[in-house]
Write a structure and sequence with these properties.
Radius of gyration: 20 Å
Strand order of the largest sheet: 3-4-5-2-1-6-7-10-9-8
Oligomer: single chain
Distance between the termini: 22 Å
Number of helices: 5
Structural class: alpha+beta
Shape: globular
Number of strands: 10
Length: 248
């Protein structure tokens, strides 16, 4: 049976591209280099470090409504300032129940959630430095390419977008040694050892949906850089970020 896009008229439903676009918008508006990102047809979830200005005053609980962590409150001010001209107003929840404070920022209409954390609470992933020669700025570009490919595939008589999920990780760059060798020695420490990767799960797609999506991905890159992984997977690089489906 052909997969059909469904859902109420307000746009909610299984289409993932609006969530990817919304996450991309939030990343750019809030100048976020994400520690983690996940998106599916229900929501997009972003994990981010609090801004340096918010971390100038550090605290340790216990917290209460009368003793809110200054890091979180500074982050609220930062988000409000950055999103001042945005039509959608975020909702804030200060999370102070654990050993370190965090802040949950919800964009309910867009279905995007950002969790801001302090460095001590960060997962063991690579954190980009301002001096890095390659920054996380390519992630929004790769997300845009993925969202565009989904819309193109949906236009190929599918009746809706191919169902998938996407998650961001920072695995070691297999070409790191070769990349470093191309730079002068005094710049080599600024070359990140990781390759930002958007892993795509298309296990819920039919063969026809996969084929339509593959064709749309190739069209977005004019056929360059798209490589097959197994029978059904693929890998390609957009803006220094790898898009990959390993479920071949």
């Amino acid at each position: 049976m052909k997969w059909q896009a469904a859902g109420p008229a307000d746009g909610t439903g299984p289409a993932v591209s609006p969530l990817i676009d919304a996450a991309r918008h939030v990343l750019r508006e809030l100048a976020i280099d994400p520690l983690a990102l996940e998106a599916d047809s229900g929501s997009a979830r972003i994990l981010a470090l609090m801004d340096e200005t918010a971390l100038r005053r550090r605290s340790r609980g216990p917290y209460s409504p009368d003793n809110l962590p200054p890091e979180a409150m500074e982050t609220v001010d930062w988000v409000v300032l950055r999103m001042y001209s945005n039509q959608e107003r975020p909702r804030f929840t200060v999370e102070g129940g654990g050993p370190w404070p965090s802040l949950l920022v919800r964009f309910d209409h867009s279905r995007v959630v950002v969790r801001y954390i302090v460095p001590e609470a960060a997962p063991p992933v690579y954190v980009y430095d301002a001096g890095d020669l390659r920054t996380a700025g390519g992630i929004p570009l790769a997300l845009e390419a993925l969202a565009t490919s989904l819309r193109r595939a949906a236009g190929a008589r599918l009746g809706g977008e191919p169902p998938l999920t996407v998650s961001l990780s920072y695995p070691d760059d297999p070409a790191y040694e070769a990349n470093v060798a191309r730079f002068p020695e005094h710049l080599r420490d600024a070359v990140p050892p990781v390759l930002p990767t958007l892993d795509i799960d298309r296990s819920g797609c039919s063969a026809g949906q996969r084929a339509a999506h593959d064709k749309a991905l190739r069209a977005g890159t004019f056929g360059k850089g798209f490589e097959r992984l197994g029978r059904r997977g693929f890998t390609m690089t957009v803006g220094g970020v790898r898009l990959r489906d390993r479920n071949g």
